[in-house]
Design a protein that fits this description.
The complex is a heterodimer of chains A (229) and B (252).
Chain A (H helix, E strand, L loop, with lengths): L1 H5 L1 H34 L3 H16 L2 H23 L9 H27 L2 H9 L4 H31 L3 H4 L4 H12 L2 H30 L7
Chain B lengths: L8 H12 L4 H6 L1 H34 L5 H14 L2 H11 L4 H5 L2 H5 L2 H26 L3 H9 L4 H31 L11 H12 L4 H28 L9
Helix pairs in contact in B: 3-4, 3-8, 3-11, 4-8, 5-8, 8-10, 9-10, 10-12, 11-12
Chain lengths: 229, 252
């Protein structure tokens, strides 16, 4: 117990890195997800093909493989391009950036499906009615599509977020000093790996519980207009 | 041996792959045996943990769905713990963590727990059993109550009701969600490479570090995983066609 208290600052620092990675990649994932959903719904063959390939690729390849590919391969690719064109010098992708980009890229694909499903759940007649009232496309989106899109997408978003939060543990394999890495280091130097991983699990459970509360609040807020049985 | 006719086609391919092409694919093909062994390990880990985990999860799911006192709460806590924490940490706590206790190190258990393969299997079984319990529980609870009532009216015992009415119906219902779990398990199995097991990703990592490469090993691994996911999806489609035959619209 005393050792855990002694290493508490490191553990908490790691926790904050974990949370930061998760939040940044969630923002990226939501952005890519909205873009991807638009690409899947848009009446453009090219957009459909690109987003289709994106979601198929992501669902086929495990996260850690993509992460390592982006961290090592992406860095090499950037530097090769830089050397060939002379546009930039040597670039080093940080662990944090690699983690955020890979996780954001992966969960962007899952978010794409979530947002696409949510959009399709909005009754077509409402959008037609908006157009019939003389609303412009952006006004229809802002007043009719968006509020309902958020409502329908929230449960799926919540699931994706909880899985994403746990996926951030893999960034420790790249060497980012997040929660798992910090507790691994602390556990190894004190020869108390079990204790520290136990604490790690407890912290993940607390983060999950906090997310649950937040998600439930959001769901209540966005379904204020829905009558419940 | 020097070929008197000059460089052969094979040499030309080798030269192109090593020098001109951005990817040295000949190098990957030369190490096909390591990747084949990796596929074997991945399939072994995933298949064994799915079979054992699935078998464990059935009674747990039924206990949860039937609200069996005490068991229900214990299973809930187990599922919550394993679904709420990363698989990587679960593997680490078993492989690295358990050695902290002298009792473990001095017991016969240590023969099992010091082997990365056994630890990985234990972690995977516990993990997939937790997820599958949730899937099956939902499916059991979704069985229409009228069917259970009808079985009761026929005088079936609780055991007979479960084995003849509830489970066949629930397992069919669970199939789509279960196919997702199989793919997640395959995706999750990559963490085995972090405890020195040479699965598909492990083979890729070895290739890359051996020749100081950035892409080849990981790309080969990515392609292999994609093929496996494709095969699993196709397999489940066929399976679903068989087990959901009664739901398909009848041909005229």
């Amino acid at each position: 117990m005393d050792t855990v208290v002694a290493y508490l600052p490191a553990i908490l620092r790691g926790t904050s890195v974990t949370v930061a990675v998760a939040l940044c990649s969630a923002v990226l994932a939501v952005f890519l997800g909205l873009l991807g959903a638009w690409g899947k719904i848009a009446p453009s063959r090219t957009a459909n093909a690109v987003t289709g390939a994106y979601t198929t690729l992501i669902r086929g390849v495990p996260d850690l493989v993509l992460m390592l590919l982006l961290f090592y391969g992406g860095q090499q690719l950037l530097n090769d391009i830089g050397a060939a064109t002379g546009w930039w010098g040597y670039i080093e992708i940080s662990h944090f950036t690699a983690g955020v980009f890979t996780i954001g890229f992966i969960y962007g694909a899952y978010m794409t499906e979530t947002f696409r499903g949510a959009y399709l759940a909005i009754p077509r007649g409402q959008i037609e009615a908006g157009t019939a009232c003389g609303m412009s496309g952006s006004l229809v989106f802002r007043r009719i599509v968006w509020p309902q899109l958020v409502r329908y997408a929230l449960p799926g978003f919540g699931n994706n977020w909880l899985v994403l939060l746990k996926t951030t543990a893999l960034v420790s394999v790249l060497g980012l000093h997040e929660l798992v890495w910090e507790s691994f280091t602390a556990g190894r130097s004190t020869r108390q790996l079990f204790t520290f991983f136990f604490v790690t699990m407890a912290i993940y459970l607390v983060l999950t519980a906090i997310s649950d509360t937040g998600l439930r609040w959001l769901e209540r807020k966005y379904s204020a207009g829905v009558r419940r049985a | 041996m020097e070929d008197p006719r000059g460089p052969s086609l094979l040499d030309a391919i080798r030269d192109f792959s090593g020098n001109a092409s951005p990817l040295d694919f000949v190098l990957i093909i030369q190490h096909w045996e390591m990747f084949a062994a990796g596929v074997g390990y991945t399939l072994l880990l995933v298949a064994v943990s799915l079979v054992i985990g699935g078998a464990l999860s059935l009674p747990l799911a039924v206990a949860r769905a039937y609200r069996t006192p005490v068991v229900n709460q214990v299973v809930w806590a187990y599922v919550y713990l394993f679904r709420g924490t990363p698989l990587l940490v679960q593997l680490y706590i078993i492989y690295y963590g358990l050695g902290q206790f002298e009792i473990v190190r001095e017991s016969f258990l240590w023969l099992v727990l010091r082997e990365p393969l056994w630890c990985t299997l234990i972690a995977f079984v516990l993990n997939t059993a937790a997820y599958t319990t949730e899937i099956f529980r939902g499916a059991v609870e979704a069985v229409p109550y009228g069917e259970v009532e009808a079985a009761k009216a026929y005088g079936m015992s609780a055991r007979l009701r479960t084995s003849r009415i509830v489970l066949p119906n629930a397992l069919r219902r669970a199939l789509p969600a279960y196919s997702n779990e199989v793919i997640f398990m395959l995706h999750g199995s990559v963490v085995a490479s972090t405890v020195t097991i040479v699965d598909i990703l492990g083979a890729g990592r070895i290739l890359n570090s051996k020749y100081y490469l950035a892409y080849e090993g990981f790309l080969a691994a990515a392609v292999l995983y994609m093929l496996l996911v494709y095969a699993i999806t196709r397999g489940f489609k066929i399976w679903e066609r068989h087990w959901h035959a009664h739901l398909r619209p009848r041909a005229a």
